[in-house]
Structure formats: structure tokens, C-alpha cells
TrEMBL record:
Main location: membrane
Keywords for this protein: Membrane, Sugar transport, Transmembrane, Transmembrane helix, Transport
Membrane topology label: Multi-pass membrane protein
Compartments, record wording: Membrane
Full protein name: Sugar transport protein
Sequence intervals crossing the membrane: 15-33, 45-65, 71-92, 104-121
InterPro entries: Sugar_transport
Family of the protein in this entry: Belongs to the GRP transporter (TC 2.A.7.5) family.
Highest taxon above the source species: Bacteria
Record bears the keyword Membrane: yes
Source species taxonomy: Bacteria, Bacillati, Actinomycetota, Actinomycetes, Pseudonocardiales
Signal peptide residue numbers: none
Keyword Lipid metabolism in record: no
Organism: Pseudonocardia xinjiangensis
Length: 122
């Protein structure tokens, strides 16, 4: 964890991450050579996702500081279980009942079992 090595608070270490995300978005958008315009709904969705990501990232950093890097990072990665479930059942990507959705659900199950094993070993 570079932020821990630098001994800076989580709020300060989040700023370079935000700049990196902005830079990556610009690299992807600028070569198109035309304005990138999102509708109001898409913009709201993207901004909401960004806010949730920021809150989750700060929570991850606080968790890691509280319980240690290995345990905290592992627990935080289990948020993928929630993200994948929301993707399938709320947004329908991939469509529920398809082969891809079953693969994602199998991955969720494996991640959940792994999280339980790690928690039991602690």
C-alpha cells in the first residue's frame, strides 16, 4: 500500500487516484476526435457511480488501516459479490439465466467461499 508507506491520510492518497481516473478517461475520449456527450440520465448514472466508488475507496482505506492490509483488502474485495449481483439483477448485464450470468454467479460463489475461509483462518 503506497499510501501507508508514504504515511499520508486516506483523503490525501485518494486525490492521485482521482487524477489517474480522469487522465485515463481523457486518453480514451480524446482520440475519437469528436465531442463526447452523454445524456442527462447517463451523466447522472456515471456521477453516481463515481461517488459510490469514492465512498467505497475511502471505506477500503479506513478498513485496511483498522484491521490490517491482508484482511481489510480481502474483505473489501468481496464487494465484487455485491457489484456482480447488482449488475445481473438490476442492470441485466449479462442477462439473468444466460451462460455468462451463470459463470458470474459461480465466480461470486467461489469468492464468497474464499472470503469465508479467510475469515475463519483469522
Amino acid at each position: 500500500m503506497p499510501a501507508q508507506w508514504a504515511a499520508v491520510p486516506p483523503q490525501v492518497s485518494n486525490f492521485p487516484l482521482a487524477l489517474g481516473i480522469l487522465g485515463g478517461a481523457l486518453v480514451l475520449a480524446l482520440p475519437a476526435g469528436e465531442p463526447v456527450r452523454l445524456g442527462l440520465r447517463a451523466t447522472g448514472t456515471q456521477l453516481g457511480a463515481g461517488v459510490l466508488f469514492g465512498i467505497g475507496n475511502l471505506a477500503l482505506l479506513a478498513l485496511v488501516a483498522r484491521v490490517g492490509t491482508g484482511t481489510g483488502f480481502t474483505v473489501a474485495q468481496l464487494s465484487l459479490v455485491v457489484n456482480a449481483g447488482i449488475g445481473i439483477w438490476v442492470f441485466g448485464v449479462p442477462q439473468p439465466g444466460t451462460r455468462q450470468a451463470r459463470k458470474v454467479l459461480a465466480g461470486i460463489l467461489i469468492a464468497g467461499i474464499g472470503g469465508c475461509v479467510i475469515a475463519a483462518m483469522r
